[in-house]
Amino acid sequence: AQHQRLLIELLPFKDSKQFHEWLDGPYVSGAWNEFRNEFLEGPCPVQLEDPDKTKICQAVKTVLLSRDPKYRVYRPDKTGWTAQDHAIRFIVSVVWDNFFGGLWSVQDFNKQPGHYLNVVYEILSFLRA
Question: Is the whole model's pTM more than 0.90, yes or no?
Fold first, then answer.
């Protein structure tokens, strides 16, 4: 409950109902379903400790600034992907989807990329709990 309250404060939601509607809606649920189905519950499910937040967020920032399609394409080849790769894919997908969904703008993101990346990392941790 405390983690949820923190996330609601960090995101532009008034209450837990709005927060859960967002989590269950198209701007998070697709990335979460992919992460869960292909990594947590895949053919070789892995119990994942939290990957290093700083490394993940820096890698996501690099991906968002590059033209590398590894984490951006619709159905990437995930052969040999690590826990970190799956976490990066989730965060990249949620960030991009929410640019398009209007939760945050590219301009806002560019002013405080660390804030948004940390929030989405925390969303992944919240969903996994």
Answer: yes
